[in-house]
From TrEMBL:
Residues 5-235 form the ABC transporter domain. GO terms for molecular function: ABC-type quaternary ammonium compound transporting activity; ATP binding; ATP hydrolysis activity. Keywords: ATP-binding, Nucleotide-binding, Transport. Its EC number is 7.6.2.9. Pfam families: ABC_tran (PF00005), TOBE_2 (PF08402). GO terms for cellular component: ATP-binding cassette (ABC) transporter complex. It comes from Microbacterium sorbitolivorans. InterPro entries: AAA+_ATPase, ABC_SmlMolc_Importer, ABC_transporter-like_ATP-bd, ABC_transporter-like_CS, Mo/tungstate-bd_C_term_dom, P-loop_NTPase, Transp-assoc_OB_typ2. This is ABC-type quaternary amine transporter. Gene3D superfamilies: P-loop containing nucleotide triphosphate hydrolases.
């Protein structure tokens, strides 16, 4: 099957610094892939190359099998939704949405039909004659999305589209965008620094670091089996320990343990520890425990031990990393409950 989008060896140098470094990625038709990573990792530069606003120093870009590397943004079969919405304040919502079709000299009757169609799709038909200042931030974002979709692009590009919304509205609008994307079956690239957003809406997530993709996986796999030390530390919360028994480390080796896989036991059981902090999170608490000079974070539901309390610790699942790369063999036996207890008893003795 021809990919909906193919990036092959993309490289971009700006100010003498390599921002994107030999990046390759294929998206299946209709797939939504997020580019996720810290500031400066190259995700926005990558999106701007896909859109045609930047020319790669090396590599190629194909949309549904057609090479668009040398084309300007106006000639590419893609449309972008910007972070700041970029709506004309003096125009109505309908005229904002119609603007790219007017520039492309689409017949007036067709413009009216396509604008009405896309406004209904995003639920803004009742605001067709409103100006941007008269509608909410979420509605402005949907108007910006409608302006992109009215062009009937083969590729939809979303540049931090929800960053200007408050937390509750951001959740609602991201669900609306995902629903529309799936109904249309349009290949989509989302750039975001928000892990929760990327994990919630994506078919796959590409985690970037230093201009390269460290891992591209389905959200559940990304969390369950981070391929590198960087991904393990960047996605979700994690504990980095010398060994599952909290003993002496091998050179170049460490273990990653998610807080939900740190079980707190009664004092005298497991590895001895002491609670140093308790951070409530509503339906659960994050509890910091020091055990054998190692600080661990544990997620606790139900009864939460007090600060200063003596507890036991059991590590129930851990992944081994050697020289920053996941030891895949540790995935096969990541549950270390019995081994940890036996080793802990040996160390204690």
């Amino acid at each position: 099957m021809t990919p909906g989008l193919r990036l092959a060896g993309l490289t971009k140098i700006l100010g003498g610094r390599t921002i994107v470094d030999d990046l390759s990625l294929d998206l299946e038709p209709g797939e939504l892939v997020s580019l996720l990573g810290p500031s400066g990792c190259g995700k926005t530069t990558t999106l701007r190359m896909i859109a045609g606003f930047l020319t790669p120093d090396d590599g190629s870009i194909e949309v549904q099998g057609s090479d668009v590397t040398a084309l300007g943004p106006e000639k590419r079969p893609s449309a972008m939704v910007f972070q700041n919405y970029a709506l004309w304040p003096h125009m109505t919502v309908a005229k904002n949405v119609a603007y790219p079709l007017k520039v492309a000299r689409v017949p007036r009757r067709e413009i009216a039909e396509r604008v009405a169609e896309v406004l209904e799709l995003v639920g803004l038909s009742h605001h067709a004659n409103s100006r941007p200042a008269q509608i909410s931030g979420g509605e402005q974002q949907r108007a910006s999305l409608a302006r992109a979709l009215v062009q009937r692009p083969k590729l939809l590009l979303l540049d931090e589209p929800l960053s200007n919304l408050d937390a509750k509205l951001r959740v609602r609008v991201r669900e609306e965008i995902r629903d529309i994307q799936q109904r249309l079956g349009i290949t989509t690239v989302l750039v975001t620094h928000d892990q929760e957003e990327a994990m919630a809406v994506s078919d796959r997530v590409a985690v970037m670091n230093g201009g390269r993709i460290e891992q591209v996986s389905e959200p559940s796999e990304l969390y369950r089996a981070p391929a590198t030390d960087f991904v393990a530390g960047f996605i979700g919360s994690s504990n980095r320990v010398a060994t599952p028994e909290l003993g002496v480390a091998e050179e170049g080796v460490h273990w990653m343990v998610r807080p939900e896989h740190v079980a707190l036991l009664d004092a005298g059981e497991g590895i001895p520890g002491r609670v140093t902090r308790v951070l409530p999170h509503g339906h659960f608490a994050e509890v910091a425990v020091v055990a054998r000079d190692t600080e661990l974070r544990a997620y606790v539901n139900g009864a939460v031990p007090a600060v200063g309390a003596e507890v036991g610790v059991r590590i129930e699942r851990a992944l081994r990393y050697e020289n920053g790369v996941l030891d895949k063999a540790s995935l096969e036996d990541a549950s270390l409950e019995s081994a940890s207890l036996e080793s802990a008893e040996r160390v204690a003795a």
